[in-house]
Amino acid sequence: MTIANDIQTEQSYVFQASVDKLGPQVTEGKGIYITIEKDGKIHKNVLDAITGAAVGALGWGDEEALEIMDKSARASTYSYPCLISNKSSEALAKFYIENSPEGAFSAALWCSSGSESNENALRIMRQYYLERGLPNKVKLMSRESSYHGFTLGAQSMSWNPRVEPFEPYLMDRKKINIKIPCAYTYRYKKEEETEEDYARRLIDDLENKIVSNDPDTIAAVVVETLPGSSLGTTPPPKGYLKGIRELCNKYDIIFYLDEVMCGTGRCNPNGRLNCWENYLDPCDAPDIQTVGKTLGSGYVPIAGVLIGPKIKNAFLNGSKAVVGGHTYSCHAFCCGVALGVQQKIKRENLTSNVFKMGNLMGEKLKNTLLAKSNIVGDVRGVGGFWSVEFVKNRETKEPFDISLGVGPRFKAVCFDNGLSVMGMPGNPDGSCGDRALLAPSFIITEEVVDDIVGKMVKSVAELTDELK
Ligand code: PLP
């Protein structure tokens, strides 16, 4: 079983990604471009079309962000949130709640990574049902191929093949986590079906699984609104999320969205923070939502759990105390920086910019790669979040054998052409092909869009030759 994505060169002291070799190292970043040191050579002006891991909303070295960091560091006094709160974490929670549809959320908890946010959400859900005197509601329902992070609880929630080798340390997923189909229109919508029919089929299947697994034991349905690293920005078919919301209402189940990668402004215009706002009415908001990545735009490690009124009220009507807390939860400095970053994004309406430019990039990729390349099967996404899926055969959608490492190889070809993208391997069982993931900074311009598209076209042509 392959766990790591790709192999690089030279000895590394950092126990991460590749332990025996040293890969490219970023040495500097300004705006959308980064400088990389690789094999002793300096590569300047590499276009960062993935912003780390869909993180850098403001671009690198943003002067205002650096000033915010300085101010925030001077203003921050560390506090242990179980004993004493701090103003920055309160202000950030207020900002997120006020900039979400009215009534969607009523509290937030801040932590340091997306994985941790999902761990915290699990713990909060458990306590929620205990507060209500429903101790048997423990099972999760999460989707094939899903990815919710690499801590053990978050892995237990996931069905991505990368999780399998860690099975002995995970929660008993056969008992606790019921696998439900992913929503993957490109591969699984039947030709004769409309998008709505496909969504209906998925919802009917979900309802059957809820009923056959005893709804009184089911805690939550967990879905990535727009899966990123798992399936590659595949948008939910029309009516799908609404259908899940309705089933959750019907069977008293938490509707839980993971927006760590797709949320916090990456996929919506007009300052709208939540990706689900593209697909759901405000009254259908999730009960719990996890966020991360663009929240701190890479300037600070921060992620969070947003909590809907139903859950907060159960605590208010119950013990009034949230059990558990981490030393660095709601860290004043990180919350202060994230707030400043989000205020700047809002003031400059950068969400509308990335929405418009990202969609333009998507259209141009469709018109070039999808229309003309033999190895590109699909180009999909929304706003600032796009994927290209590679296939061996466009007619049958047969993926490449994963031993060819097409996704990681594409990343390497792009790098040689001065473009940084995420190259993801396909699933070993062929249920998903290799992908390239694009998540540019919110400050992207039309000129940069053209630069990305040009470099993608060149890189796909070179990879096609390499694969012959
Ligand atoms: N959830 C989703 C949907 C993600 O895409 C990721 C990371 O890519 C995570 C959770 C985990 O976040 P982190 O890497 O910050 O722990």
UniProtKB/TrEMBL annotation:
| Gene3D superfamilies xref list | Aspartate Aminotransferase, domain 1, Type I PLP-dependent aspartate aminotransferase-like (Major domain)
InterPro entries, per the entry? Aminotrans_3, PyrdxlP-dep_Trfase, PyrdxlP-dep_Trfase_major, PyrdxlP-dep_Trfase_small
Top-level taxonomic group: Eukaryota
Per UniProt, which keywords does this protein have?
Pyridoxal phosphate
Is Nucleus found in the keyword set?
no
Pfam families, alphabetically? Aminotran_3
Look up the record and report any one GO term of the cellular component aspect: cytosol
User: What's the family?
Assistant: Belongs to the class-III pyridoxal-phosphate-dependent aminotransferase family.
Official protein name in the record = KLTH0C11836p
- Please name the source species: Lachancea thermotolerans (strain ATCC 56472 / CBS 6340 / NRRL Y-8284) (Yeast)
Q: What is the lineage of its organism?
A: Eukaryota, Fungi, Dikarya, Ascomycota, Saccharomycotina
